[in-house]
Structures are given as structure tokens and as C-alpha cells.
Write a structure and sequence with these properties.
heterodimer; A: 234 residues; mainly alpha; B: alpha+beta; Four Helix Bundle (Hemerythrin (Met), subunit A); 2 domains
């Protein structure tokens, strides 16, 4: 049975990836969106003085881009499922609901990580040139990115499953998503800021933020996993 | 039906009397606490005399805080006594029996100031007997809403969805009251209307979550789906409530915390009475709204019967 669930899980993740490779819709829209966010950042920061240090707000700006980009992606991924009747077919097929949940979470996580992997270098190239960066501590950034993205994908998949069935799809998801994300964002931004600033003092702050995010991931993933079964069938 | 609403009205009246009584009673019984040491310039009518004080100043530049007070300033064994007329970071000027003496702050070896302390009555503190019970009830009713949401998911019985929804409405009411009183108090005590401080921030997030709950409800047409989504969201959202409740004890925060044994008897008794009163008010609002929902249901039912 375990291997059957495993096969179903792999098939569903593969389905998402194949569809994405054919249409390239999510990566394109999310990547473009995050690039556009960079343009908006540039405009927002264009009036800052010469002694302004972009490292101070880099973590916040990065997570701002991720959170809004992820909402776009989450909405897209579930809208596809619903419009093409895929979700109904999945529900009719003998697949356990948790398998559907985790397959969707992993699918969303992969796309989110791909977009983040594109965004970070672009952000660094556009805003952090000339800043002295500690490569050793910067290597921790992917770690917190991953931990934060797990939470975003987990809660986001559940909320997006709800919001695609509401009358105001695009409006409902942010209203539900952003307040729920607040604890994760707080921890993720503080940890990322510590990693970007670097230095021996920052490591304590990084691991506190990291622990906060991982704790949030565990609680929220368990809650989402428990609730998904009821939501997806409604 | 009748007895439930009668009970609710009795609870409302009793709760109102207790809450108001506790609030007014503290003025007579617990009095108005002092705001601590304040300078006397201006608003002299609103300050209370507390008694004489005499203390040493740690650094000479702190003498700026004691202009108008008596001071004994020691410089290399020489002691000058007088009233401080002027002081800055670098020098202090004393009026010693008509002679004006200016001393460099660097030369001061020790300084003792004396005078009278005054306390300003802290009227703003009185909001404690309203704001804190209201905030506590908002957490309790949120917990009730999450509980009924869980019950609904387990049983799928419509009455639990109704109860969760009404509890959520009561939560929103109490959250708004907490916010309103809290904002007034922060203006009085901290001098700002709002501060991004851990308790305030997490409570603001809780407000947004409760509002989002109603946004979600309003945007789903199908009744069973609406109930399920709302229940799931209220359970997820409730995770913020304990964070908001305990955060002042975990992270350094400006928001005051009641410590065990930190309240004097008159304050403690007034506070407990206010809590009981507020709990009754919350219960009454909940029951009255529930009664209204039931009546609406009956009307709808009657309408369908009449239409045939």
C-alpha cells in the first residue's frame, strides 16, 4: 500500500512538472512577476541617500517578492486543476487525500524554489553590488529559503484550494494568506537578515529565526494536512 | 426559546452592572495610582504631593533634570550648596544664597539633589478594568469559535457552524473594543497612537484573521462548502491567538503584563469582578445573536412551508 501511495504521489508530481514544462506558464508568470517587483523596488528605493545600505532591507524585500510571487503561483496551480477538471478526476480516482495534498505541496514547492533560485541572483545583481557580503553566512540563505518555502507551499496549497472555489478568487487568497503567514515571515526575514549581514554575532539570530520558521512549518503543515481532507472534498 | 433569551438578557444586565460597578468602584476603593515622579512645571493642579526626596546623581549631566531643585555639588573637596538655575551637558550653574556659581561638569565629583516628589494621577490606568477583560474575552470567544469549528468538521451538523459563526462575530466585537481602548491607552501612556510592538502586532494580525474569516464566508455561495472552509480557516487562524497571548511573556515587549501577586487587593477584586461581568456580557451577546439566528431559521422554514 505504501508503495502504491508512493507511485501515485510520484505520478501526480510528475504530472505537474510535465504540464509546467509544456506550458511554462507558472515559471514564466512568476519569474516575470518577481522581475517586475524588482523594478518597483528600484523605483521605491530611487530617492534614498548615498549612505543608505541596501543590506539592511534586502531580507525584507526578498521575502516580500517571494510572498507575492508565491500567491500568484498558488492561485495558478489550483485554477488549472479546477478549470480542466483535473481535481475532480483526482478525487474520483482511488487516491488518498493526503497523497493529493502532499503532491500538490511538493509541486508548488518545486516551482516556488525554482523562482526563488532565479530571484536571489537577480536581486543580488541589481541591489547588492558593491556591498561587502560574507560568503560563509550567505551560504545559509538557501536553507532559510527552503524552510520558509515549505511553510508557504503547505499553507498556501490549502488556502488556494479554498480560494479557487470562492467568488473572488484573486482577492480572497491574499486576505487569508498574508495574516496566516505573518509568524513565518517574521522568522524568515530575521534569519535572512542575519545571514546577509553576517558576522559571528548574527549566527544566534539566524538559528532563532530558523527554529521559529521550522516550528511554524511543523504546526501549520500538520494542521493543513489534517484539514485538507475535508476541504478538498467539499 | 423564551427562557434562553430571558437568561441572556439577565446575563447582559448583570454583566453590565458588574463591569460598570467594578470600573466605577475602583475610583473609590482602589483610588487612582500615581504616575511616579514628575516635574512640576505646568499642570500643577493635576499633580499630587508625595513627599521629600534626597538622592545622589550618578553623572553630572543628569543635573539638567533637576533645574529648580536644591543641590549639593562637590568639587575636589569643595562643597557648593544652592538651587540649580541652569544646567547643560558641560556645566551647571547654582544660585548659592544670591551668588551665582558655575561649575564645569568635568569637575563635579559627586552631587546630591533634594526637593519634593510629585505624582501625577494616572487616569489612563483605569482603562485596565475594561481593556484587559475585553481582550481576555476576545481570546476566550475565539477559542469557543475554534472549538465549534472543530466540532462542525467532525460532525457536519449545521448548528455547530452557526455557533462557530456567532462566536466569531462576538470575537470581532470584542477585538474591536480591545483595539479602540488599547489605542486610546497607548496614546495616553506611550504618547503614540500605535506602535509595532509584539503584542500589538500579533493582535492586529488576529484582527485581520477574524475579518478574513468573514470575507471568506461571504465569498462562498454553497452553504456546506462555506461552513467547511470557514471552520478550517478559523482553526488555522486560532493558532495566532496563543502566540498573541503569550508573546509579551516571551519577547521583550512594551505591553504591560500582570504578574502573579502584582495587584493589590482592591485592584485585584475590582479586576476579577470586571472579568466576571465581561464574561457575562460576552455570553449574553452570544446567546442573543444565537436566538436571532434561530428565529431567522424558523422564519425561513415557515416561508418554505407556506410556498408549498
Amino acid at each position: 500500500m505504501a508503495s502504491l501511495s508512493g507511485r501515485q504521489f510520484r505520478a501526480m508530481v510528475k504530472k505537474d512538472i510535465v504540464m509546467e514544462l509544456r506550458t511554462k506558464e507558472m515559471i514564466m508568470s512568476m519569474g516575470l512577476y518577481s522581475l517586475l517587483t524588482m523594478v518597483v523596488y528600484f523605483v521605491a528605493l530611487s530617492q534614498t541617500g548615498s549612505n543608505f545600505d541596501p543590506r539592511d532591507i534586502a531580507a525584507g524585500l526578498l521575502w516580500l517578492a517571494f510572498i507575492f510571487t508565491s500567491m500568484l503561483g498558488l492561485n495558478r496551480s489550483l485554477v488549472h486543476e479546477k478549470d480542466q477538471g483535473c481535481l475532480e478526476a483526482l478525487l474520483l480516482s482511488p487516491v488518498d487525500r493526503p497523497v493529493i495534498f502532499f503532491a500538490k505541496v511538493i509541486g508548488n514547492l518545486i516551482f516556488l524554489l525554482a523562482v526563488e533560485a532565479l530571484t536571489i541572483p537577480v536581486f543580488g545583481f541589481l541591489f547588492l553590488q558593491g556591498s561587502s557580503l560574507d560568503i560563509g553566512s550567505m551560504a545559509l540563505v538557501p536553507l532559510i529559503m527552503f524552510a520558509g518555502s515549505v511553510g508557504i507551499a503547505g499553507v498556501g496549497t490549502l488556502l488556494a484550494t479554498m480560494s479557487v472555489n470562492t467568488s473572488g478568487k484573486d482577492f480572497v487568497l491574499p486576505v487569508l494568506f498574508i495574516p496566516l503567514m505573518y509568524p513565518l515571515l517574521l522568522g524568515a526575514v530575521s534569519a535572512t537578515a542575519a545571514a546577509i549581514t553576517g558576522g559571528p554575532d548574527a549566527m544566534g539570530g539566524f538559528w532563532i529565526g530558523m527554529a521559529w520558521v521550522v516550528g511554524y512549518d511543523v504546526i501549520m503543515l500538520l494542521a493543513s494536512y489534517g484539514l485538507y481532507e475535508f476541504i478538498v472534498g467539499a | 426559546m423564551k427562557s434562553a433569551s430571558t437568561r441572556a438578557l439577565i446575563a447582559l444586565a448583570l454583566g453590565g452592572v458588574l463591569t460598570l460597578g467594578a470600573f466605577l468602584g475602583t475610583f473609590f476603593w482602589a483610588g487612582v495610582p500615581d504616575f511616579g515622579f514628575v516635574r512640576t512645571a505646568g499642570r500643577a493642579e493635576s499633580v499630587r504631593y508625595q513627599g521629600p526626596f534626597k538622592q545622589e546623581v550618578a553623572e553630572a549631566r543628569y543635573l539638567q533634570n533637576y533645574v529648580g531643585y536644591r543641590a549639593e555639588v562637590e568639587t575636589d573637596g569643595d562643597i557648593v550648596q544652592g538651587t540649580i538655575t541652569e544646567a547643560s551637558d558641560d556645566a551647571v550653574t547654582l544660585d548659592a544664597d544670591g551668588d551665582s556659581v558655575t561649575i564645569d561638569a568635568a569637575d563635579v565629583t559627586s552631587a546630591i539633589v533634594s526637593g519634593s516628589t510629585y505624582g501625577r494621577p494616572d487616569w489612563g490606568q483605569k482603562i485596565f478594568y475594561f481593556h484587559v477583560p475585553v481582550a481576555e474575552i476576545s481570546f476566550i470567544v475565539f477559542a469557543v469559535a475554534a472549538f465549534y469549528s472543530l466540532r462542525f468538521i467532525m460532525t457536519r451538523r449545521r448548528q455547530y457552524d452557526q455557533k462557530a459563526r456567532v462566536a466569531m462575530e462576538v470575537t470581532l466585537t470584542f477585538i474591536m473594543l480591545t483595539m479602540a481602548t488599547g489605542i486610546l491607552w497607548t496614546r495616553a501612556a506611550w504618547g503614540v497612537w500605535w506602535e509595532w510592538e509584539p503584542r500589538l502586532t500579533t493582535y492586529f494580525i488576529m484582527t485581520l484573521l477574524v475579518i478574513a474569516y468573514f470575507v471568506l464566508r461571504n465569498s462562498v455561495e454553497d452553504e456546506e462548502r462555506r461552513a467547511l472552509y470557514a471552520a478550517a480557516f478559523s482553526i488555522l487562524g486560532f493558532i495566532d491567538a496563543p502566540i498573541s497571548f503569550f508573546i509579551t511573556r516571551l519577547i521583550p515587549s512594551n505591553h504591560p503584563v500582570i504578574e502573579r501577586g502584582g495587584l493589590e487587593t482592591p485592584m485585584l477584586v475590582s479586576f476579577i469582578v470586571a472579568q466576571i461581568g465581561m464574561l457575562l456580557v460576552g455570553y449574553a451577546i452570544y446567546q442573543l445573536r444565537m436566538g436571532e439566528m434561530k428565529l431567522t431559521d424558523r422564519i425561513e422554514h415557515a416561508k418554505t412551508l407556506l410556498e408549498g
